[in-house]
Design goal:
Length: 295
């Protein structure tokens, strides 16, 4: 098996959480029509939806080198100096859950931007129904290119009137790993929130150092939100990251939800745990306020 096909720890956490029955889930046709991915399994009928009332929201193209990266953004209407928050998506592409999270952040006063940084492969990840077909695409994304793409998002948001001096990032699953990586890269980042982001990577020359290895280099405080029942990211690994950050005197905090599996915030999936998800969102909002990303 090549690295591109490797089942990484975030994917292990995803694939080992399955709903017990189809009751309470949309049909595949309805899920696709609503803009949700099918690769993560059946889509819950009772999903969280956020409207665009009071917001400016839509699709954008962000210049990265000689190419244009698709993105979705949302921000308070008429607010030209909203703080910028990058939304780092799961492996499933820029589907409706990520767009909704972007709108939720805009309702909190942010200029939130979710970039589709896997676009170069020419595959619409939201239309892929099998996780195994996603892996060769997402595992082949070099960290250097990813970090450069995120820097381009910050520059674009600033050019659109966002306040890039109050920069945050939030990510889920593989996007949680992205938060840790970006916190070690960007001196402009004020704070990050990583939902069940992978901390230890399999060997891959495209991913030279895992978040755990980068702990001494963190430039911004990160809040790590993890599930105690995550089958891919054991609590011991989270404790290891916590200890590494403490040893390096890097500001960070962690909250582990004992009964929650991987993907507990993903309200469209069977892994969703309402109590943990709602509390974690409050923790994220408070974290961004603490570090002056949000007012």
């Amino acid at each position: 098996m090549s690295f591109e096909d490797t089942i990484t720890s975030d994917v292990i956490g995803l694939t080992k959480v399955a709903p017990l029955s189809r009751r309470g889930f949309m049909s595949a046709t309805a899920a696709v029509a609503a803009g949700y991915t099918l690769a993560a399994g059946p889509v819950r009928a009772d999903i969280v939806t956020t409207d665009t009332s009071g917001l400016q929201a839509g699709d954008a193209k962000i210049k990265v080198g000689s190419e244009e990266m698709p993105a979705y953004f949302a921000r308070p209407a008429g607010n030209t100096k909203a703080p910028v928050i990058i939304v780092a998506m799961e492996i499933f592409g820029l589907h409706e859950y990520i767009r909704d999270v972007t709108r939720r952040l805009a309702k909190l006063g942010a200029f939130a931007v979710a970039p589709d940084y896997y676009f170069r492969k020419g595959v619409d990840l939201t239309k892929v129904a099998d996780v195994k077909e996603l892996l060769p695409v997402v595992n082949a994304k070099p960290d250097a290119e990813l970090l450069s793409d995120l820097d381009a998002v910050v520059a674009w948001a600033g050019s659109q009137g966002g306040d890039a001096t109050r920069l945050g990032t939030i990510g889920f699953c593989r996007g949680g790993r992205t938060v840790w990586e970006y916190a070690a890269h960007s001196g402009a980042l004020k704070a990050g929130v990583a939902f069940y982001g992978t901390l230890v990577d399999p060997a891959n020359p495209l991913w030279p150092r895992s978040p755990l290895q980068l702990a001494p280099e963190m430039k911004a405080p990160v809040l790590g939100l993890y599930g105690g029942a995550d089958t891919g990211i054991p609590v011991a690994q989270v404790e290891q990251m916590k200890a590494a950050l403490e040893q390096s005197k890097k500001p960070a905090d962690f909250k582990i939800y004992p009964e929650a599996p991987h993907g507990f915030h993903a309200d469209y999936r069977g892994s969703y745990r309402k109590d943990a998800a709602e509390d974690a969102w409050k923790q994220a909002e408070a974290w961004f306020k603490k570090y002056d990303v949000l007012s």
